[in-house]
Amino acid sequence: MKYSKLTGQRYKEKPAEATCASHIFMLRGGYMRQVANGIYTLMLPAQRIVAKIEQIIREEMNAIDGQEIKMPVVIPRELWEESGRYNEIGVELLRMNDRYGHGLTLGMTHEEVVVHLARTEAKSYKDYPFMLYQIQTKFRDEARSRGGLIRVREFTMKDAYSFHTSQEDLERYYKVMARAYERIFARIGIPEVVRVQSDSGMMGGKVADEYMLLCEVGEDTIVTCSNCNYLANREVGIGIIEDYPETEKPIEKVYTPNTKSIEDVTNLLKIAPSRTAKSVFYKTAQGALVLALIRGDLEVNELKLSKIFKSELVFANDDEIRAAGAIPGFASGIGLKNCTIIADPSVANSNNLVAGSNEQDYHIYNFNLRRDVPNAKLVDIAMARNGDTCPICSQGKLVLKRGVEVGQIFQLGTRYTTSMKMTYTDLDNTEKTPIMGCYGIGVGRNLACIAEARHDAKGIFWPITIAPWQVQINVLNLDNGNLKEVAEKLYLELTQQGLEVIYDDRNLPAGQQFAEADLLGVPLRLVISPRNMEKGQIEWKVRTTGESGFIDLTAAVNFVNEWVKNELAKINASCSLQQ
Amino acid sequence: MKYSKLTGQRYKEKPAEATCASHIFMLRGGYMRQVANGIYTLMLPAQRIVAKIEQIIREEMNAIDGQEIKMPVVIPRELWEESGRYNEIGVELLRMNDRYGHGLTLGMTHEEVVVHLARTEAKSYKDYPFMLYQIQTKFRDEARSRGGLIRVREFTMKDAYSFHTSQEDLERYYKVMARAYERIFARIGIPEVVRVQSDSGMMGGKVADEYMLLCEVGEDTIVTCSNCNYLANREVGIGIIEDYPETEKPIEKVYTPNTKSIEDVTNLLKIAPSRTAKSVFYKTAQGALVLALIRGDLEVNELKLSKIFKSELVFANDDEIRAAGAIPGFASGIGLKNCTIIADPSVANSNNLVAGSNEQDYHIYNFNLRRDVPNAKLVDIAMARNGDTCPICSQGKLVLKRGVEVGQIFQLGTRYTTSMKMTYTDLDNTEKTPIMGCYGIGVGRNLACIAEARHDAKGIFWPITIAPWQVQINVLNLDNGNLKEVAEKLYLELTQQGLEVIYDDRNLPAGQQFAEADLLGVPLRLVISPRNMEKGQIEWKVRTTGESGFIDLTAAVNFVNEWVKNELAKINASCSLQQ
Which pLDDT band, with edges at 50, 70 and 90, does B201 fall under? Predict the structure, then answer.
């Protein structure tokens, strides 16, 4: 393609609305423009990259017997009602009515639609297992879009759904899918993506893993180990902490006026937070009161807690706390009524802690959970911390990192096949319920993540497998002698070789050409200049490494062809190793 | 692919809900399933065809400097308000609010979004001309979906938009686009698609052409000529009729009780309908009364009429007709007040017609428009008829045919660039308004139309360029001797040649295998049977022509490779000729 035919302004300045590298460079480089909050138009360079990412995903899905289908963007309300999610999912599910008043929604995920399809198509055990996938537009009405394509409202996603007749077969295929995901991330140029234990969230199901690119713009916190491969989303991550077992001592009251927090108490009593027990009161959606007891140096992981009650939780107010017989600010689990008490093992495994007394202005010394609140249920509800000991190797220390989710895989189980009454006839002629897995990759978010992981101060360097073009030709002084002729001929010859070439035919000053080239991030740059042409040479430069050199014009086509082939081979070789 | 891994039931019976061939066969053959009214899921065979159609469209758009982009499905209300279409377009534009109450719509066409993009990106005359296109999901809340993929609510469309600095340049590019469209229809296997003059409808703009596949399931009526190439949508088509010029005679009243229609009057007075003038009253959206006068043997073309008033028209009721001084059933243009009178030339060019008298139970003889209603505006508002004389060659007779619109091209002009204040700086430093064209092709509708045009009683035969697979292998009696081995080896070898093969590995009875193969419409079928294998041969059969023969197994791979290459070359050769 000739640059003069490429529509899109390129900017020198950082746009005011952008803070992360991918967003900045993709606005500056003419890759995308905002249409509305969290809704973008992708321009030619971005669309070319997206098409390549999609093709790589498609090849990997086809290689594991995936069947590409296309489900609708607009989904009738009835299907969500059938699965029960119409009421479970909040306002992020966009709802509307058609001209006849029928309820419609914009698809944010397609479990319902795929089960609606599969239940009429796979009636016999012989039809199993199978996997259906699509690459399709989705909409999720996020409260806050951010980071350009990192978190948007409208996005393109590959969503895949597998159907099995046994848990064993689901688990077998789950591993096959995980390998395909690793190959995808390697092929699109971010092999460093890690697989992280995660929560299955609104999907239902029990086993779930997320693929995370560890980087500063990430919204997720990932628990990693300094010694082993432990990786978990902090939502489900576990840390081992030091316990303080002692011989139980009798309770002693202590006067602690005006202490409203653990910090106040520890300052007043000159003790460490790890020597206290903290009480946090919540209310379930059904209005039930919950007390979470945890050691004072830890935080409650509300996701872990909410999963115990299968309900979102909100903080209880003072009246509700008093109604249970507790005093706000001075509460503990002792003597409460009408309140479910969940205690983290951290409280149980340390003795003689300072805790609330349920009496105004008093705390107690020597709180011992097993003795003093024998009805508390012991469940891990702690948030893992930097420096905790790894629960897997028991050696390394936990390190928290930021990450962006670039894909996720779920073992859904029968959540949807049961609610939507999908069955098949088994070999023994009985009707059984199939078991599902589902597997997503956001295309645009991956595009942005590649840019996050592969850029310098001047712009992006796209991996050869997904670059909008493989080779760029720049000419310094297009008016000089026969330089234009040379460039046009080289452009034509490279294109005829099947190479993807963008040729800057605009006769702009070198500085502007190179600045825009850096933004476009094409892997190999060829520079034709008067000085080098005197020697019959052109200059080549690799965007990633900065490596450069000169090559005879006559040898240029071969050189480029070989270079591109080698770069592609390198990435493919790295993928094969992973299988 | 192996048939055993293809998800989807195939049916022998015609589904109750389907009436046209494409719908019947695509349901029976497991290509698609309905999700809601006018909303479908495409299954693997259909998705494979769609991907090929899209790729052909993409190649042809890229070849004429089109830049593929991706605009959003969800469009903010503000953009439609800016162009003025938010109120112009009716309920077919689906509207909703996001979580913050901001108005959103589902894109049914993207003029607004593309102008929103282009107005910041193409500020200088140097940036012109350019063409942006996308292949993207659209939604139109049709009152009546029908014919499977022929008329749906959610559909994939290629929509392209070109921007120019002069009308001449738009006209030049319009021809380039028309040639690209001809190549697309030829390459996807329906070269018989014709280009038809059409109305530009809600798009605005003046020049518009539709591409039509003439076939019985079409909703449009196309005016064709028995002698020349005249082709027009009946909405804009013109027919030349026989006039009856005579010397004007004086008006005579005639008693015509209980005559409510032209038919009643002509029966009573024993005259031909062409000897009468018909009066039809309408009301504009603004409430203005309109009388359309036309010869009794013709029908009013309401689209032509509505364009005069730039308003949709509804029939006036009796009270409104009386208010203008006319008598319903006995009305004419004589002596009316507060009423705009539009007369078709057919009334002006025949004399001494029978017309209403504006008196109950009376008509008049010898109505002469120019004398009796001198204030009538003469405009062509007639519906062209079968047998009218062609307005182009003046020799042939018009023949009305049914057609399905498979694409359309518009010269939009400055309808959107003006309303949305898009300008560029011209060479002389003045700000000017760019001129636009827009060009659409519905992907799914083309898929359905190919099926309409290419089927027999047993199923579809897909053109080689878009077939879901190029070759199908059937085995009669897979258990017999080494037939399975032979088939697997042939499947592997053909696949390794880059051919797209579907292999029926299910060991079903021959009848069922062939019935399903006919539904799948793969161009070349290879049959491995015990009898032929005794001679070391396999049978081949061409789906389209029924042509068949035998080939030595050892020569089969070469044979198939050559056959596919030749079939593809034939279509490509036919396209080159058109350029």
Answer: low
For the record, the structure tokens of B534 come out as 């005794």
Q: Are B72 and A130 in contact (CB < 8 Å)?
A: no
Can you give the three-state secondary structure of A158-203, one letter per residue?
A: EEEEEEECCHHHHHHHHHHHHHHHHHHHHHCCCCCCEEEECCCHHH
CA B251, B254, B256 angle in degrees (round to 5)?
140
Instruction: Mark A289-304 as b/e (b = at least 16 C-beta within 10 Å).
Output: bbbbbbbbbbebbbbb
Amino acid symbol at A23: H
Asked if the C-beta of B124 comes within 8 angstroms of chain A's C-beta atoms, the answer is no
Cα separation, A500 vs B366, whole angstroms: 76
pLDDT at residue A280 greater than cutoff 50: yes
pLDDT digits 0-9 by tens, B76-87: 999 999 999 998
Determine the pLDDT at residue A576: 66
Q: What's the order of all strands across the beta sheet hosting A548-552?
A: A501-503, A471-475, A524-528, A537-542, A548-552
3-class DSSP string for A450-475: HHHHCECCCCECCCCCCCCCCEEEEE
Looking at beta carbons, which residues of chain B come within 8 Å of A507? none
Do residues A125 and A426 touch, judged by C-beta distance below 8 A?
yes
Rounded to 10°, the helix A44-63/A167-187 angle is 140
Task: Calculate how close chain A gets to B417, using CA atoms only, in Å.
Answer: 17
Cα torsion A111, A115, A118, A119 to 10°: value is 170
Closest listed residue to residue A14, CA positions, set A26, A4, A24, A5? A24
* Contact assignment for B121 to A30 by CB distance below 8 Å: yes
A43 touches chain B (CB under 8 A): yes
- Flag whether residue B41 sits within 8 Å of chain A, measured between CB atoms: yes
Q: Which of B10, B98, B163 has the most A C-beta neighbours within 10 Å, making it the best mutation to test the interface with A? A: B98
Q: Extract the tokens encoding A428.
A: 């023994």
Nearest to B9 among A4, A33, A121 (CB): A121
* Best to test chain B binding among A98, A117, A502 (most B CBs inside 10 Å): A98
Q: Tokens for B561?
A: 């490779």
Cβ count near A573 (within 10 Å): 9
Residues 6+ positions from B257 with CB-CB distance below 8 Å: B361
A242 class by beta-carbon count within 10 Å (0-12 exposed, 13-18 middle, 19+ buried): exposed
Distances B258 to A150, A469, B170, B262 between C-alpha atoms, Å: 74, 78, 56, 12
Of A362, A361, A347, A316, nearest to A324 by C-alpha is: A316
pTM: 0.91
- Measure Cα distances from B335 to A378, B332, B531 in Å: 96, 8, 89
ipTM of the complex: 0.91
**Phi and psi, residue A138, nearest 5°:** -130, 160
* Nearest CA-CA partner of B230 in B59, B35, B460, B390: B390
Average pLDDT value for residue range B445-467: 96
Q: Which two tokens stand for residue A64?
A: 């594991």
DSSP string, B405-439: EEEEEEEEETHHHHHTT--EE-TTS-EE--EEEEE
Q: Which domains does chain A have, with CATH numbers?
A: 14-211+404-453 (3.30.930.10), 254-378 (3.90.960.10), 471-578 (3.40.50.800)
Q: Give tens-digit pLDDT for A136-157.
A: 999 999 999 999 999 999 999 9
Mean of all residue pLDDT scores within chain A = 94
B5: nearest CA partner in chain A: A130
pLDDT digits (tens, 9 = 90+) for B338-369: 999 999 999 999 999 999 999 999 999 999 99
| Distances in whole angstroms, Cα of residue A417 to Cα of each of A40, A227, B35 | 35, 41, 17
| Residues in chain A closer than 8 A to B36 (CB atoms) | 72, 74-76, 78, 102, 104
CA separation, residue A304 to residues A236, A379, A383, A390 (Å): 7, 9, 9, 18
